[in-house]
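hey so u asked for the seq, here:
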Amino acid sequence: MAAPWVVSDELWSRIEPLLPVRPAGRTGPKPLPDRQVLQGILFVLYTGIGWEDLPQELGFGLGA
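ran it, structure tokens below
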């Protein structure tokens, strides 16, 4: 069984069309992929950990 914060391909295919398109030519640091950010949010909600305390090895959050 996958961790509860891992977004399955089936779920992601339903969520992704609802997200806004990022504008072209955006400046600044490259943002994390939307799917990773959603998994980070779910991890925070599930575990109660602070966003800034997310482990880097998870690949999302401020530590990434």
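The chain has a mean pLDDT of 85. The first helix runs from residue 9 to 15.
lmk if thats what u needed
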